[in-house]
Write a structure and sequence with these properties.
Length: 709
Amino acid sequence: MSTPELVTITVDDVEIQVPKGIGLVEAALQAGIEIPVFCYEPRLGPPVGACRMCLCEVAPGPPKPQAACTLTAADGMVVKTAATSPMAAEAQDATLEFILVNHPLDCPVCDKGGECPLQDLTFRYGPGNTRMTFAKRTFEKPIPISPTIALDRERCILCYRCTRFSEAVAEDGQLVARDRGASSIIATFEDEPYRAPFSGNVIELCPVGALTSTQYRFEARPWEIQNIPTVCGLCPVGCNISATTREGKVKRILSRNHPELDEGWLCDKGRFGYSHLYARDRVKDPLRKVGQRRFEELSWDDALDQAEALLRRGPVLLALSGSETVEQAEALARLVRQGLGSDAVVLPEQTSPAIDAFRAPLSSIRDAERVIVVGDEPVEERAPVVGLWIKAARRAGAEIVTVGAAGTNPAAPGKAAEAVRALGEQVRGAVLIWSGPGGAGGALVAALADELGAAAAFYLPSTPNGRAVVEAWHAAGDGEPQRPERIGTLLISGEEAAADPVVRSLAEQADAVIAITMFADPVRGWADLVLPATSYLERDGTVVNLEGRPQRLRRAVIPPAPDEVAWIAKLAERFGVVVDPHARAVEAAEQAALPARAEPAPVTLPKAPRAQTAKGGPLKLVRYRALFSGPAVERVPELQFQRPEPVIELSARDAGTRNISTGEEVVVRSNGTSVRMRARINRQLVNGAVRAPEEHVRELEQAVEVSKA
């Protein structure tokens, strides 16, 4: 990497050397001097100079204040801020006076009060009184631009942070500025609800209280809260977050900028999904089945006695969800493998260690010259922040090549590897991303990256911590995973595993079922014993994200039941197994950087399956797990509008063959089962395949017939 050219500038009589072309706001910070801003936010792209709060006196230049955020450092430049320039001080004072002309003085009831840049900068730079005697302008309030976001227009200072995020980062184009001049307002496109996976980021970007969270509105004040740094546990990215708590309850989730991992962006599932902690059917005490769908509460001593009796019945099969911490997975694995002598397990999707040879931070996607995205499932549904990095790469000029059932390079389901190999030299030096089935846990991705010379490779798993959970299972014993002929007791860990159709079918074969879950409703009628589980916001422990980066979960609130590791340790004692009931500490240095790359391991590329024919016959169903699905999201009222609709995608040719148009109701059949859905023509979808959210097609086989209703 070449060393940047340095230039010498002077800021408030402090002479410093900075890289040529750096923005003056950042340059001043290197001198320890703050230039106040509202609209400026480097993550949103080029500055727009909308708010004028950064006005400074700059020489050489015109004899008037200039917007520092729009200028870059040049050799010999002299910058004077409001601290040393009466001209700049007068300009900033006037800017704040103008902003406050119509801004309401409702700080005591504003959710931004105490955390508000406008409030802070007014005290530091603004006038001490007002010259305005007329009534302030008012609007209808609050305006619900979505079930999760409320807009108070009279507080808006038109910094355009929100619209720039919508246009230039998320690229959803749903938030716009309407009208002109003094009549300008922020609105959604055609007044439709703001339905986008990253919409909640505009709440944090807003420098005033114009955009607020409907969940957090009037819930707490800054002096009453604590912010606990932790990690989101709802997808394999592992975004860094802060959990805001008040009186022992989580009240909101904020992003916590990790520049290599998430750049401070957070999807709506991670931001608003926390209220599943307070679901109506939350399990707080052990429950024992006493009727067809009835449970009775047990004491913990009685629950552990019954769990011990059920586990001693015979062959035990453990089903892991992939959302457990490393410590929870280790405790369960030691209990089952060492205490019960069973190697029977249902593991989450495994991530091959072969991918470690191509490990890189997610930010490397943005810096790549070419990104190749492979797989049949949308990246945004599996790992939403990865989708933002891909968009950032495209904006930076990278070539984006998509290979899969719906890609720029179409490939029949199951033939993506062959299509990638056909790209040849295009893969050399590129970043390779595999989203969806067929990646063999990253082994296939690693083999292709090694063969074709990719610079970095990412495999997007389907579970938040599946890789570490599988490794914890293998570390507890030597035998290979087994499936017993008879299941004495099925031990299910996590509500995701309890909702899995495969695990549900195994529960029908088991003599008894023990479910460790947060929610009672999904296991009513078939679980014999329910033991309370905790959420990622209620745990201390270790997780490993899709980069292979170990991160520490910190408990934000005390759960309504003991941590799983604590009572599993007590249960394991009864079988002669010692389990450490405490979570290990992950050192900060370990979290700061990814582990070193491993050497590439040889992996055999599987043969591609035969090509599928399409015309008039059965179509191959491609399922994907939608981002806004799962037991946690189902219990968050504000996120129901984001849930996946019962829509099935068809290629233009397959739709034409069946005389189907977008929006029409169709019947999807397989093996005597049928579901009704709406059709959507996807002109990038390969012929012979259809694609639909998993939760709407769980009962269907892989080959389906589609016809008009």
